Amino acid sequence: MNAVAVPMKPASQHLYRRRRLGNAVAVILATAAAILGLLFLGWILWTLVAKGLGHINVALFTQNQPPPLEAGGLKNAFFGSLVMCAMGLLIGTPLGIAAGTWLAEYGNARKLGTTVRFVNDILLSAPSIVLGLFVYAIFVAKPGPDSDPLLGFSALSGGIALAFIVLPVVVRTTDEMLRLVPTQMREAALSLGVPQWKVTMQVLYRSALPGIVTGVLLALARISGETAPLLFTAFGNEFWSTDVTEPMAAVSVVMYNFAGKGYENWEHIAWAGALVLTLFVLTISLAARALLLRNKITHD
């Protein structure tokens, strides 16, 4: 039988045209906003490459930061950034994975679990300078038993500040990835008499590992460019230092100190450091995306 077309009523036609017009306006505005954002992003990247690429050389990675009007590099700052980022990951990652596991496996249906997720979301969106001030108040400014600061300005204080930024990212990622593991896998393992901790370690973590690693990489990308927390904790150091209990340089802090000071060599080093830092963050982000895509293809 041939379908008979039912004519639309005038009111329905008017509503249909109004919805199509609203959809077209929304699509145009969204596209314009995306293009505008991409233009500004491209402008920023082009400026960064134009001002920084010509000053990336061997000295940037082999010499310490120089005094005004002298040649130098960012060797001590690169080392300091790597050390403090590594400490932030070493402190924040195990705690984040443990907390995320508790949320997904034990606190998922509890009021306490809901409260912890809410607090974690607040911590995730908290300004980094607030976290830096908190660590400053507890570990840098607060005196210990001998009336000296607990840690003082040091790389260790900077690592703790960065750990507070890593923690909520890893908690959220671990929680989400473990909850995506099918319930049937848990039930199948438990039905064989496998203890709960072995199910978590040998079944759940294996399935969620790519997603958890992705979260850790995203946390690394975020903390690698942080400046405000390190100003209140690591403080900075113009010289080469491997002592984590003393102030230590970081690339972001050196960029903050060098930019706008009026010394040409400092500004060149700051632009070069900014470009290297941006390329590092871009590489980490691409690696996280690749892991996430691989995990998605595997599950599909």
Automatic annotation (TrEMBL):
Keywords: Cell membrane, Membrane, Phosphate transport, Transmembrane, Transmembrane helix, Transport. GO terms for biological process: phosphate ion transmembrane transport. It holds the Pfam family BPD_transp_1. One of its GO terms (cellular component) is plasma membrane. InterPro entries: MetI-like (IPR000515), MetI-like_sf (IPR035906), Phosphate_PstA (IPR005672), Phosphate_transprt_permease (IPR051408). It is found in: Cell inner membrane; Cell membrane. PROSITE patterns: ABC_TM1. Residues 78-288 form the ABC transmembrane type-1 domain. SUPFAM superfamilies: MetI-like. Its main location: membrane. It is a multi-pass membrane protein. The chain crosses the membrane at residues 21-46, 77-106, 118-139, 151-171, 203-223, 269-292. GO terms for molecular function: phosphate transmembrane transporter activity. Belongs to the binding-protein-dependent transport system permease family. CysTW subfamily. This is Phosphate transport system permease protein PstA. It comes from Agrilutibacter solisilvae. The gene is pstA.
